[in-house]
Amino acid sequence: MSHTALEHVLRKAGAGTLALVAALGLGFAAAPQALAQSKQVIRISTPAVPDDWHAKMWTVFKENLEKSAPGEFDVQIHLNAALFKQGTEPAAMARGNLEMSAISAQDISKLVPEFSIFTAGYIIRDPDHQQKVFNGPIGEEVFKPVVQKLEVTPLATAYLGTRQVMLREDRSVKTPADLKGVKLRMPASKEWLFLGEALGATPMPLAYGEVYLALQTGTIDGQDNPLPSVRAAKFYEVSKTIVLTGHLVDAIFLSYSTKAFNALKPEQQKKVRVAAEAAARYNNANRIKDEAELIDFFKAQGLKIVTPDVAAFRKSVQEKYLASEMAKTWPKGLLERLNAVR
Ligand code: KDO
């Protein structure tokens, strides 16, 4: 009987049998524990809420790996930022306290400033452009310093969605000037706050998990997120207006602690990468489908959908980024190369 089959029989028989076998001094009684110990633990932490696609994608990752490498990995998924606070995942991965997460361009920019080009509004055109950029030669190039400086290895790029502005009051917004004085919640980092400012609003840093209550109580006037996340986190219950600014075609990068990844066998690395790619594909397809359908859902919920002057937003946001300190770190010619990706 194989070890795995033996483990199964013993587990089915219950703990009593295990104790009895151990008491009888049968050597193989230790086998199940030894097997369990040899599994590679993959701890995953994400702020995503359970109903969101980039939370569900981790189950796809787990199932894919269970099929390609049965019994080799113990994938532990922690949602709602239950294990690590939003934005602290890369440091936890570098320290070896976490194996995987899906990190943002803003997270990466903290140690790799030139990556901030991907935090800028109106640069990536759509999900297709995003996938071509990160899965092509540009991706290969820009991920290199991430592996070295952040000590995390990006494995796949997931489309988080196109970010839109949402307000708790009924309000008409046509241009950035109409967002003047609006307390717009942004995730807590300077790259995110800059985006809020570039949109014309007054950015307020706040963790994702606190947004619902802040909208409900009026601590903030609005927030920005892709529509599928707005549905999953139910922000629409405490908002009245959606302004379709489409200001950031957002990505998150399924990444592995470099140290932990390098400790895997090459064939395991390959399987982990394939599983991450399958998870990203699942997320991307569902999100794109959702984005096409959700406007009607939000209308049915009684929300006002505003189509602003997107050209005015684009012009103003792009000017602010190009004049920023961030733009000075962008590799020469990268913007042009990004624009040329079709
Ligand atoms: C958010 O806090 O608004 C954000 O959308 C930022 C993303 O980078 C990502 O962290 C995301 O939240 C979470 O995964 C929750 O959906």
Write a structural description.
Helix 4 (53-68) runs antiparallel to helix 13 (266-300). The chain has a single domain (39-168, 191-340), classed as D-Maltodextrin-Binding Protein, domain 2 (3-Layer(aba) Sandwich), CATH 3.40.190. It is an alpha/beta fold and 342 residues long. Helix 4 links the parallel strand 1 (40-45) and strand 2 (73-78). 42% of the residues are buried. The chain is 46% helix and 19% strand. Strands 3, 4, 5, 6, 7, 8 and 9 form a seven-stranded mixed beta sheet that branches. A two-stranded parallel sheet has the order 1-2. 3-deoxy-alpha-D-manno-oct-2-ulopyranosonic acid binds next to loops.
Mean pLDDT: 92
Number of strands: 9
The termini sit apart by 56 Å
Instruction: Characterize the quaternary organization of these chains.
Output: single chain
Classified by CATH, the class is: Alpha Beta
Unreliable runs = 1-33
Most strands sheet: 7 strands, mixed
Reading the helices and strands in chain order gives HHHEHEHEHHHEEHEHEHEHHEHH
Provide the gyration radius in Å.
23 Å
State the shape.
Answer: globular
Bound molecules: 3-deoxy-alpha-D-manno-oct-2-ulopyranosonic acid
Q: CATH topology, anyone?
A: D-Maltodextrin-Binding Protein, domain 2
Structural class: alpha/beta
User: What is the annotated CATH architecture?
Assistant: 3-Layer(aba) Sandwich
Separate helix tally: 15
Instruction: Report the sheet-strand fraction.
Output: 15-25%
- The CATH superfamily is Bacterial extracellular solute-binding protein, family 7
The total domain count is 1
Helix content: 40-55%
